[in-house]
Amino acid sequence: MTTDVADLRVLLSADPSKLNADVRSAIGVLKSYAQDAKNAEDATFGFGRSFNDTADLLSEKSVAIVQGFSVVQGAVLGLTGTAVGLAASVSSLAQQGREMEQMALKAGVSVEVMQELTYATEQYNVSGDQLSDMLKDVQDKLGDFSATGGGEFKDWMDNIAPKVGLTIEKLQQMAGPDALVAIQNAMDATNVSAAEQVFYLESIANDVSVLQPLLQNHGAELQRLTSHYRSLNVALSETDISQLKELDQKLKDISLRLQSSFAQGVLGASEQIDWLTEKLGYAVSYWEPCLIVGRITPAQ
């Protein structure tokens, strides 16, 4: 299991350009770990019984038994700590996947596209969460104009769209980023001033004007950055995210069960622990006078 854990750490810190393959390899390592942890969990249930079997030896070998108990305790707690550490690593990846799913749903794009767009917009200090809010805002404003003929999209639709033959139906058929590129193209084609462009964009979605460098020239920079990200082959698919979430839950379950198993093992040996405590108390009382006078042998 130590080898598996080491392998996992290597995989989680691997070259991002190989993340897809590494995630799949990590899944195999974690499945093996899960089985090892399950076996360890089963073994801890026999801890109390094993302690009972050694009770007769306590009077002669109390020190050795105390040391053995510490070893068992350390091993179980170490295994539990390893499980918790692994769960934290996987949980971090799984949480990233969950957040990406939420952002993609809000923006109306796939998780792969959302990762590409996030990579591009982060070059301009716009996070994926901020971008998803912007894209949702665009779709909401388009929907408002389509339903009521008014709203914050009205000025742009009345003043700019007719000059380039854009209709609300055409814009609604486009994915969020494509609609923004089309809106920017229309303003460039109709020689809208820079100040007016910012006004129109900000009325469509808050802070979206900061993305203008990505949208201009038919979205050339956006296309360049998203294509570069795609070439790295690092995007997590829906399947990858689903498997990470499943493993995250399994490891959390195993960690909880291991902690519970150790607690049950200790509770099952409570009578023997009480017996040992009593005997050690007697021993301390017997040796105490010798310790006070500095003798190293028991009093006769």
Characterization of the model:
This protein is mainly alpha-helical. 81% of the residues lie in helices and 0% in strands. Helix 1 runs antiparallel to helix 2 and helix 4 packs parallel to helix 6. It is elongated, with a radius of gyration of 32 Å. The protein starts with a helix and ends in an 8-residue tail after the last helix.
Structural descriptors:
single chain, disordered N terminus, mainly alpha, 300 residues
Average pLDDT taken over every residue: 74
Q: What's the main sheet like?
A: none
User: What is the number of strand segments?
Assistant: 0
Low-confidence stretches: 1-19, 47-66
> Beta-strand level of the residues, as a percent range?
under 5%
Helix tally?
Answer: 14
In which range does the helix fraction lie? Answer: over 70%
Shape assignment: elongated
Radius of gyration: 32 Å
- The assigned structural class equals mainly alpha
The helix/strand series, from N terminus to C terminus, equals: HHHHHHHHHHHHHH
